[in-house]
Amino acid sequence: MREVTPELIVDGAVPLHPAISPDGRHVAWTVTPMGRAREHPAGAIWVAATDGGTPPRRLTSGAAYDVLPRWAEDPGLLFFLSDRTRRGTAQLHRIRLDGGAAEALTAWESGISGFLPPAGGRLVAVVAADEPDVEDERRRAAEGDDAIVWGERPSRARLRLLDLATGELDLVAGLGDRHVAELAQRPDGGPLAVLARPSSGLDPVADGSELWLVDLETGKATRLGRTAPEASSPVWWRADDGWHLGYLAQTPPGPVGGRAVFDLIVGEAGEHRNLTLGVGEADEHRNLTLGMDVCPTALAQVAEGPPLALFAEGLDSAMYRLDPREGRFRRMSPVAGWAGALTASRTGEAVAALVSTSYEPVNVHAGPLAGPLARLSDTRPELREVRWGVRERLSYRARDGLGLDGLVILPAGKGREDGPFPLGTLVPGGPYARHADQFTLGAIPSGQWLATAGFAVFLPNPRGGEGHGHAFASAVAGAVGQDEWADIVSGIDLLVADGVADPDRLGIGGWSHGGFMAAWAVGQTGRFKAALMGAGISDWGMLVATGEAGVLEAGLGGSCGWEGPGPHPHDRVSPISYASRVRTPVLILHGEDDTNVPVGQAVYFHRALRRFGVEHEFVVYPREGHVIRERGHQLDVLRRTRAWFARWLGPTGSG
């Protein structure tokens, strides 16, 4: 059997961006290394027959960053982005499946960030930032003027139309100064739906996402109004009452309650009849997933029918199709484990997605909508040479009787009869995330990474996460660390009672919201012998003030610091308020350039632990954001976290 090393994990490949051809016969996708070893990432485009009749083949070399394949109406032609001309600056390319070199279609100085192949006609919708003002940059450099003025010279991506016949790239001026986030063309070749925002990032004070229509022939832009918070994935479909636009978004006021699918009716001329929601103009967008006990995770437009969707169902996933007459999603087929990035053929009868199951890493799967889906890619065959820890599904009750699920991974080569074991509890992020029954091996500390070192691993799904409907997800609104913490403790108690976990060798950790829960845990109890706070929150009020989501985080913490002199509700749910109680050794890891949870959150907790003499390590990774991407840093995270738990939880043999 093969040994699991940090290098084995981070030197593997990851599939991304599956796209099924309009006729449903082929699937294209991107393959990239898990860890970025050089300044610029690399990626290659692969393609395979949907029925698996021919083996996958690499369409581009992977020497540059070739990503985001999308099909033309001609099923033999593929568009994609690549920085092969100048590393770090992507341009639009196209290539034929039957051979030949890729053709560059743009040479835009600022690069291309998104595109949509033409649905008939010759125009490609392209998303690109304005080209730099070279003279102004030279003047500023000469004067030493590098002042950053809020709202001045913002970085925004704009919609442009590329004429394939002439190569001209013309700006769609009607959208004004808005940042273009996503596009979806009406399947009959009609107007383009544009999801636009005030700036390239989330607005930290008020979400200003809007939907617009753009006539590709005239360039005329028509505003449809505001969306629900954090909107994404616009899709079209036709019903008896006309054309509809749907999208994924957080249920207002966000980010609590999880995602839903919203809908508005769009007339032929761009007028719209809104149907009830809760924030300004989006008040009247209909929630198509209201009352469901599952959660939407992805939408896929279908040219000749209603859209498809992926839903999280407990520890598994499922494909659904919208019933336009009922305005409800109907379950079509189950997908074991985790699924994402759904893509559909012209009729919707053939689909492809990324799928991971208990012992199989993420790969591209395809097949009929009625299922089952078959694996097309095989990006990590070397992992079949490893003996992994046995995964078991858990179903149990919270203290208040709420039904919960989760997973436990036993140490590799061990059974329950060999316990009790040192237990590492890894809390999911979000909080609107979950542990699906998927293969867990990654650069962020993962279940199998600890299981192959002799630890049992508990993967809890406390309330606040996806997979059980809106009420389950919204239960943490303004009350993070309360009932969700009790849910985690109930699962640990179950594993101790069952003889799986050694009560004297318990550890806890996680990343993002999981890092918050680890910091919270050590301020509430002394049961844990070690903790990992990865990119975690220590102060919810400070996160509202400095994090990229801004006031949206107040939905979790319960308040903002500018709401009077306090005390504030968010103080009661912030780990920093309980730092004087901490006695557990804590490993703090954080990316220096994290804008989601800024590194100041880690600095604050670090200083508090120093003040109270708590054993801890504080590690900051330069150039990293909320996710650690550089190979060297990923290796360090894996080595450091396993060594930390081994140090404090003791020997990892049986009993």
From TrEMBL:
Protein name (database record): Prolyl oligopeptidase family serine peptidase
Gene Ontology terms describing biological process: proteolysis
SUPFAM superfamilies the record matches: alpha/beta-Hydrolases, DPP6 N-terminal domain-like
Origin: domain of life: Bacteria
Signal peptide range: none
Annotated Peptidase S9 prolyl oligopeptidase catalytic domain residues: 448-651
Molecular function as annotated in GO: serine-type endopeptidase activity
Organism of derivation: Nonomuraea phyllanthi
